[in-house]
Amino acid sequence: MTIRSIIRATGAYLPKKILTNKDLEGIVDTSDEWITQRSGIKERRIAADDQATSDLAIEAGRQAIENAGIDPSEIDGVIVATTTPDKTFPAVAVKVQAELGIPVGLAFDVQAVCTGFVYALSTADAFIQTAKARRILVIGAEKMSSILNWEDRTTCVLFGDGAGAVILEVDENGQGDLSDRGVLSTHLYANGAQRDLLYTDGGPSTTGDSGHIIMHGREIFKYAVRYMADVVKETLEANDITAADIDWLVPHQANKRIIEATAKKLDLPMDKVVLTVEKHGNTSAASIPLALHEAVADGRIKQGDLLLLEAMGGGLTWGAALVRF
Description:
Layout: E1 2-13, E2 17-20, H1 21-25, H2 32-39, E3 43-46, H3 53-68, E4 77-81, H4 92-100, E5 106-110, H5 116-129, E6 135-143, E7 161-174, E8 182-190, E9 198-200, E10 213-215, H6 217-238, E11 248-251, H7 256-265, H8 277-280, H9 287-297, E12 306-313, E13 317-324
Parallel strand pairs: 4-5, 4-6, 11-12
Antiparallel strand pairs: 1-7, 2-3, 6-7, 8-13, 9-10, 12-13
Helix pairs in contact: 3-4, 6-7
């Protein structure tokens, strides 16, 4: 018998407001053609002024709970991956816990920027593997619009808001091989020496405000392609499989060109890659669970499919998870 952490259900929430590339032409010196060619993004969602990250997380979490067919009282904890919390403290997770009626238990945020959901999933899996919890609500939620400089055309066109969630729960019937449902392996990395390639120019202990995103795009593109290919190769080798064994690649939705370059390096056809960047933009920690939910909801991803999740974000952080859905 092998203990696994299986994804029982998914959920998602996207704000109502859609900001298109055409809309952005009236805000900054840019064009639909310029944005599309460099990122693959056509539109993104923007949260209302009175919507906080927790509001997005709560809605995604609520949907995941409903889709799982469980009661909130059956959940042992909440982990939220976010880089745009409502406040410096308390964590977004504790508000989610309270608003959804989840009992007293573990609740905290994880900050690894765009890699946050992979970090959160790995952390939740560790709690379940060590019998510290049996069922955890894992959420990636971001209001990236709140940390954008809307006069910087190199960054404000790339990001959007949203939240995605999964219910991760224990399964004690695993056979100890790749046929098992659940999280099969996770691989996490960071290189702090590269932290100045993508960051915000503010913070509570420096400027006293959240600051805005600063990004060195060419360098980020170069490292993203390299790190994504490396961590995916490591994941495949660790599980003694090839890219041909993967049913779906569910990547961080930062840039279509990065995703295509990663798939090409792996000799993986694009029809096995879940793409939502065109409609969502880069939603940071929310992008993987949003993409996962969309592909589950429309029937592309089915129970038993082998998924490879991968991301890279500021820090620089990067990571991957192999999951049998």
